[in-house]
Amino acid sequence: MKLGPKMGMEPRSLTRMIKSLEEKGWIEKRMDNSDKRMVNIHLTETGEKNEKPFKKFCYKIQQDHSRKN
Fold first, then answer.
1. What number of other Cβ atoms are within 10 A of residue 9's Cβ?
2. Domain architecture of the chain: domains with CATH
3. Cβ atoms < 10 Å from Cβ of 58
């Protein structure tokens, strides 16, 4: 699934969000085994334990993005 269009986000906004979540330790990026151009995003154990704040964070990013456009 292409995440950007699904969330209604521009690539640069999505990149910032993913970087922030990765820095928090909530997600990790893994190369796709079948297509090396693709990167898969996975919740870490920390991300799973913080599901509510994670969803709130994603919602806030999406709302901030909507206000800018």
1. 19
2. 9-68 (1.10.10.10)
3. 14
